[in-house]
Write a structure and sequence with these properties.
single chain; alpha+beta; two-stranded antiparallel ribbon; 31% helix; disordered N terminus; disordered C terminus
Length: 230
Amino acid sequence: QPPPAAAAEAAAASPEEEEEEALVNMGLICGRYLVPIGDVKKVGRENHRVIGGATFETSKHVVFTPPDVGHAVSVLEPILEELHPNLFQTYEVVRSIAGVRALPKRNNLGSLPLADRIGDINGTRLWVLTGLGSRGLLYHSWLSDKLAHAMLLDDLESIPVEVRRLRTDVPEDTTTDSGNPQDKEIDIGQAPSKPKNRAMKTERQQRRQQQEEPQVRIDDENEQVEEFGQ
């Protein structure tokens, strides 16, 4: 005789329970979403509307073109009906909207927003908080507070160094998980070091290292017999 809990799990759920479970399992910062808007207690179709999305498409060239309603419906219909069965039989599509989201480059810490001071423009010191992406729900309040403190105190140290990536004060020796150097970013208007000077400095360092390294004398049988320095 199975315990009551097991028997309850084996019982088929009603359509109402399935719908409720689907809505409970809906993610807030990932996957797809359905957001009811308006006052559902009032009578009238204008008070029973739902926003569903999104296609999360990327494009390097076609940015400001009008949204394609037919394309959006074809992509979202099977996905959104997993959250709300018979959604498109209950509601009719009124319109499709689209927007552009700024996404900074990923690094070994993932996709992080940007919060920094990028210099003076027309005598005004400009601060930036952008690139929040889908994780803005987690970052926006905390980072806004950090940015406000930095602006009031004129102190960049109030902002975590991991998101101050519009300047050159981020350590350059950090590497990604694969061991490759991160892409570097510089201040607007600040030129990078000249390649010629950098090459001369590297050559001097190599010569100095060769002079300091001990040398080893090897006999005819390829055995190490003595170590000495210059």
